[in-house]
Amino acid sequence: MSELRDRSNRTPKVSGVARHGRLKKSSAWKTVLGLIGGTLAVALIAGVSVAGIAAAQLQSNIKTTRIAADTQGPPPNIASFAGGFNILLVGSDTRVGQGGIGAGKGDGGALNDVTMIMHVAQDQKSATVVSIPRDMVVPIPKCANGGGAAGLPINTTLSYGGLACTVLTVQNLTGLSIQFAGLITFEGVAAMSDAVGGVDVCVATAINDPYTGINLSAGTHTLQGVQALEFLRSRHGVGDGSDLGRIGSQQVFLSALVRKIKSSDTLTNFSKLYAIAQAATQNITLSENFTHLDTLVSVALVLKNIPLENIVFVQYPGKTGGTGIYAGKVQPQTSIANQLFAAIKADQPIGLDSNALTGAHGGSTLGTAPAATATPTPTPTATLPGETETTPPTAVIPGLKGQSAAQYTCSVGR
């Protein structure tokens, strides 16, 4: 899930994250589209071959906003770079301009319902997506419309200064520099799930939530449109009824979404890919340095080539039941979080132990075909004659909750 045009062969320095070097250039304007975002701030990846007029149409759809990273220089062209990067993905709960979707409590509000940061490793062989609970109390920096507090729920950042404020908060919290950011609303989530033809999710026990309107029996359901949004937003109907429970269900959905987008049924279907491209570009606001189609295509191609088992969704470590400013909210588990972000900064793939999908994760459980989790020994990989490249060892962090995109999981009703 938040946020330098350099066409030389040099590797520019990016503080606290991935380095960028030279990439083999792709024919970007003949290979149009990829987009990050997707359901509730996550539109995942698609590659489409379209030419001229279609490319111009997609480009004209894109809405932009400015984040701090934009001040570092002209918009970059990722097609000119190799290496890792960080993208912040934010889902807004605003009801303005949403055609009645999500109407009710919170009309007119603008909070970040979902905050996710995606890190792609320097070797482009693994990606980690960290979901930050919306109710997690964290330090909020001074932004355009307020903030500057030692501890407030992170979902207030969008109201204090838009996407730029959320980017700054997440950078301070994680120690990661965010190069790119995207924002999606309720209507965008519904459109994206329609564009992929629905997402199949497993429900272990019935989910009934009068707050969002979702009502699902045990079994497998194909969710799209408003129903997909209701599932992703349900908190009272899943797990322990907390925001941590909702993240568990979101990861069930997102892993299924990634599998669908990366399947041959999608990647070889021009009409479906173009529909995804249209839905994404029409419904997502991107940071200024992330709005060029060749940049989006290049990022998409990187993600397209990462194996499902190396795409891991994790929850920012947190717990409920705290006191003081944490009463009724989520309290960060700093020791576990420090291990997680140290591993991410070291570009280590993230593994999960056998307890990663317990009920404490929010009511997700392994389905019928879970992928094995292993901690491989570093493997020398051939590069140039006489040279080798060592794959970083997988980091398995006790207490970290999540799943890989290759794991089939089920959401558990409350």
Name a few traits of the molecule:
414 residues, alpha+beta, eight-stranded mixed β-sheet, four-stranded mixed β-sheet, 24 strands, 24% strand, globular, disordered N terminus
Structural commentary:
With 414 residues, the protein is an alpha+beta fold. 26% of the residues lie in helices and 24% in strands. The protein has nine helices and 24 strands. The chain has helices at 52-61, 157-174, 186-195, 225-233, 243-261, 264-267, 270-283, 293-304, 334-345, and strands at 20-21, 63-65, 82-83, 85-92, 112-120, 127-132, 137-143, 146-153, 180-184, 199-205, 207-209, 214-216, 219-223, 284-287, 311-315, 318-319, 331-332, 350-351, 364-366, 380-382, 388-390, 395-396, 402-404, 409-412. The protein has an eight-stranded mixed sheet with strand order 2-14-9-4-5-6-15-23, with helices on both faces. The chain has a four-stranded mixed sheet with strand order 13-10-24-19. Strand 20 and strand 21 form a beta hairpin. It is globular. Residues 1-52, 69-73, 358-363 and 367-387 have low confidence and may be disordered.
